[in-house]
Design goal:
- With 136 residues, the chain is α+β, with helices and mostly antiparallel strands.
- The chain has a domain of 82 residues: OB fold (Dihydrolipoamide Acetyltransferase, E2P) (Beta Barrel), CATH 2.40.50.
- The protein is built from two helices and six strands; from the N terminus they run αββββββα.
- A five-stranded mixed beta barrel has the order 1-2-3-5-4.
- α1 runs parallel beside α2.
């Protein structure tokens, strides 16, 4: 009989990796980025539009850019926090070609399991999940 035990940290790491894989499969774009600017605009319906600008470290799925901008709509008063640490970011692309935030679970800190998965699957990420079901 064999038993396998996961530490709490390993379990969290595996859950994050599962979420990451689903996000990659469900969106149009994946890159490692560093957020460099956030502009906030008040919308007519009392929501707020955040426009993020990020330097692209590496692109894994979608078109390659040195810098990318994307939009996020949030309810008024909803708090958004980002720092300057590089993160993996998944985005959707509208019919007009603008990138937008598909929702919670769209950015991921670099972890050993995510980094390893990306390195092991680099050749197939570009074609992973062409349905982009978070983007419909």
């Amino acid at each position: 009989m064999s038993f396998s035990f996961c530490t709490k940290a390993q379990h969290i790491d595996l859950l994050e990796l599962d979420g990451f894989k689903k996000a990659v499969k469900s969106t149009d774009y994946l890159a490692k980025v560093t957020i460099i600017r956030v502009d906030v605009f008040q919308e007519a319906d009392d929501s707020q539009k955040y426009v993020f600008t990020a330097d692209v470290v590496s692109t894994f799925k979608g078109d390659s850019y040195n810098q990318i901008s994307f939009e996020m709509l949030v309810e008024k008063g909803e708090d958004m926090t980002f720092n300057s640490a590089p993160v993996y970011l998944v985005l959707c692309k509208s019919l007009s070609g603008a990138y937008y935030w598909p929702g919670t679970g769209s950015y991921f800190k670099s972890t050993s399991s995510i980094d390893t998965w990306i390195n092991d699957n680099r050749g197939t990420i570009q074609i992973a999940g062409t349905s982009a079901d978070w983007c419909n």
